Amino acid sequence: MHAKVTTDLRSGPRGRFTIKALLVPLLTHPKFAHFIKYAVYLSLTVNFFVYTLDDYHVYSASLSADTPISDILLTFATTIDTAAWLGLVFLFELETYALSDASFEGGAPIVIHILRIICYVAIAYAAYGYTAETLENYDIVVLDDINNVCQVAGKGIWLQVNSIDFEEITVENCSTLSESSRFYRVADDLSIVDEKTLPHIQWVGWIDVVNAYVWLIVVFLIEIEVWLQAQDRFFSRALPAVRTTSTICYGILILNAIIWAFAGYDLYTWDSFLWIFGFWAIELNLAEWERDRTQQLQEELA
Hints:
The protein has helices at 19-23, 30-62, 69-75, 77-98, 108-136, 174-177, 197-230, 238-262, 266-301; strands spanning 140-142, 158-160, 166-168, 183-186, 193-194. It is mainly alpha-helical.
């Protein structure tokens, strides 16, 4: 196995058209690369608090005080998801860059892996939450007694205006909120939605679902690559397949971000690209790890 490490890295798996091949040139500018990486990490942390406030706003607008805890957790699926992903990024950062090799001779790897499992459970639950919430968008009740949004003005009812935003219906704003004459209530929500907005939130929900499961595939592939590199299998036949599949997944994630941009979800678009850049930072760590370890093995063989 070690005899193969004398091969130029550019002729190995990274020579293919993959995300890692595009990131490798940044290794020649380590200070710039690290500045970008930690700026992205900081932005992801800020975004976590933004999404927490956003979920709380949805909870306040759509759920009653006696709502079951299971429904409340589904409403905070984005917060749970973001917290788990943030933890996962930091754990990968520790394993692939921040911690020295000597740190992995003790109990650090076990602790990191246990924490990662907890993050994966939370992420899987959030993916379930997105799926359940999207399916709930089809559990609708037609409000036959409402044909004008102003009929419920001043009664503490909120109108869902897109996938994430709600407006309280007041006497002052009701005439500007909706021109529809048909309204619905989704599942057990207290808020209402008009006939124009309902199809929109239904298809946007499926973008969320696809995004969640593609990200699960991405981190599964990173786990495989981390394991292969830890075994010094830098020229394993599995690596090209892993990296090509990762590149395809990142392409889907970028496409989703573009769809959100055209749909008017600027925060979703910004957040999506931040997470993509955050995991590209992990990919860059893996590339640097491969370069340094391969050089070490070459020196040992010399």
